[in-house]
């Protein structure tokens, strides 16, 4: 494992001065189980954070979050951030140089002309859009996944849902929060690319496909023009509006936060993950591991074929990206860690979550390279890549396998990467070259374990930076800083640097990275595991049918 570089640190006085002057940027990301706020100070260094836990709920067969929970979660995360700033630095922020919002991509938030939500928020996790996604994919000659916003809208049209005639706009979760803060119906191009296909040449919605959709929808909804419902597309660095008095009150009901703060374009968690890992240039990619797990690889040229395993989205700057998105990530691994934590407490040795994960992940390194013959599926939900519309978490083994803590934990980590590896095989078949994959998310807080096994799973070096645990909240804060830098350059009459140049020269120039190369024994072991994993999908399907 190689360490590259080390970032410098601002002094305590410099940090306090920056907070008082509003010379900081704030990033807020609404993830699947946690809303996180990250404050970035001099040198793009995280100087405080706050979080608020939340959970989706199943309502009328669809996964959703209520808007009341969105508002309460934003306020909770912001209040926790302010408290952390005061505890660490002895001052309370009242303004910022810029702020940004990101959230889970995709899904469907539909509003009428008065701004009223027409149906509960339908998240990326829902898989009820199969007929719409299949018909649109065939029409466009372009893969439209089940979770994309246009699939949700067209499925509502196919189902003749009564709310459809009233739809005046629809957006993603990040787009909704951004509009609540600024009043502007806009979206960063990366998040927009998960609503409707983007033309990389124009960095806007694909005009041909918009016309095709108009003709398709006309049979059921004459006159529906989807381009009038979608958010305006903005690339990274654009001025996406200012914090209104109403927006400031939404974030901070105490009244301390002042309006007027610049906002960057709202982005999806995929885009902020790319920024957080410096993976916005061709031949680079990143992997984000959370409730879901996905890989993003920036393409040098378009793919030659359409693959249902691969989405085509964009970076926040609008460059084409192949995305392998798996509905299921680290949740089952978290559940097993919870069981072992309870066991430790029952023995009279209660331990915090980090200590439990550290012990379990360390054990995984001692497991057999192929997991000792064990097989694990992390399918809490359906998994479109493997053709499953529901999931059943499983641990399966043959009588001659070796059940041990080390093998169980290695297999659980392998299982979190299994579906992702199947998608990456498709990408490799397209001849896509990858120099380095950058990883972020809570799985990588335990140094060297998930990173090493991921390198074996994807067959490429995997780099983890010091901000890997900060994830997308830090990434959107960096995008906010970029918008501020572009605005300042414009005021000075200078052209702003590209996003890639900004990240290379001003954010990651001295960043510390740990790079894990694929280990030959691990690679061979994971391939043996993946063959069992592929064959065992029949067991997973049988479990869905039987249970």
From TrEMBL:
SUPFAM superfamilies: Actin-like ATPase domain (SSF53067). This is ATPase. CDD domains: ASKHA_NBD_FGGY_BaXK-like. Signal peptide: none annotated. Gene3D superfamilies: 3.30.420.40. Pfam families: FGGY_C (PF02782), FGGY_N (PF00370). It comes from Isoptericola cucumis. InterPro entries: ATPase_NBD, FGGY_C, FGGY_Carb_Kinase, FGGY_N.
């Amino acid at each position: 494992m190689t360490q590259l570089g080390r970032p410098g640190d601002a002094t305590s006085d410099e940090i306090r001065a920056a907070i008082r002057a509003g010379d900081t940027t704030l990033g807020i990301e609404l993830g699947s189980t946690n809303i996180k706020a990250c404050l970035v100070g001099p040198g793009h260094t995280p100087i405080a954070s706050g979080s608020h836990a939340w959970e989706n709920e199943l309502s009328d067969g669809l996964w959703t979050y209520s808007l009341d929970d969105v508002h309460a979660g934003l306020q909770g995360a912001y209040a926790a951030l302010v408290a952390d700033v005061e505890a660490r630095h002895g001052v309370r922020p009242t303004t910022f140089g810029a702020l940004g919002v990101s959230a889970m991509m995709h899904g469907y938030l539909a509003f009428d002309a008065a701004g009223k939500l027409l149906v509960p928020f339908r998240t990326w996790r829902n898989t009820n859009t199969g007929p719409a996604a299949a018909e649109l994919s065939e029409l466009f000659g372009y893969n439209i996944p089940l979770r994309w916003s246009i699939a949700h809208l067209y499925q509502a049209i196919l189902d003749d849902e009564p709310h459809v005639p009233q739809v005046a706009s629809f957006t993603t979760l990040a787009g909704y929060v951004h509009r609540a803060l600024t009043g502007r119906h806009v979206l960063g191009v990366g998040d927009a690319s998960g609503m409707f296909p983007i033309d990389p040449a124009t960095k806007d919605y694909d005009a041909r496909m918009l016309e095709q959709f108009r003709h398709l929808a006309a049979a059921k909804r004459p006159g529906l023009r989807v381009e009038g419902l979608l958010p305006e597309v903005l690339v990274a660095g654009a001025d996406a509006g200012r914090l209104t008095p109403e927006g400031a009150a939404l974030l901070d009901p105490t009244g301390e936060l002042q309006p007027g703060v610049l906002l960057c374009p709202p982005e999806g968690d995929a885009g902020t993950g790319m920024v957080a890992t410096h993976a916005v240039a061709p031949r680079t990619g990143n992997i984000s591991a959370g409730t879901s797990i996905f890989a993003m690889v920036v393409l040098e040229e378009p793919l030659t074929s359409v693959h249902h395993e691969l989405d085509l989205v964009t970076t926040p700057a609008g460059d084409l990206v192949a995305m392998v998105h798996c509905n299921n990530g680290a949740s089952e691994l978290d559940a097993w860690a919870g069981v072992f934590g309870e066991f430790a407490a029952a023995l009279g040795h209660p331990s915090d979550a980090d200590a439990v994960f550290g012990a379990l992940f360390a054990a995984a390194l001692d497991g057999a390279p192929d997991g000792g013959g064990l097989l694990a599926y992390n399918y809490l939900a359906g998994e479109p890549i493997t053709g499953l519309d529901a999931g059943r978490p499983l641990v399966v083994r043959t009588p001659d396998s070796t059940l041990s803590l080390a093998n169980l934990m290695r297999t659980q980590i392998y299982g979190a990467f299994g579906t992702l590896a199947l998608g990456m095989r498709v990408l490799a078949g397209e001849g896509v070259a990858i120099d380095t994959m950058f990883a972020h998310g809570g799985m990588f807080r335990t140094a060297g374990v998930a990173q090493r096994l991921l390198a074996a799973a994807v067959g490429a070096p995997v780099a983890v930076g010091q901000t890997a645990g900060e994830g997308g909240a830090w990434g959107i804060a960096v995008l906010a800083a970029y918008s501020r830098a572009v605005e300042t350059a414009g005021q000075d009459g200078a052209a702003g640097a590209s996003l890639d140049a900004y990240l290379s020269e001003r954010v990651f120039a001295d960043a510390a990275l740990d790079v894990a190369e694929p280990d030959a024994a691990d690679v061979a072991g994971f391939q043996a595991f993946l063959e069992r994993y592929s064959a065992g999908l029949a067991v997973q399907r049988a479990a869905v049918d039987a249970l």
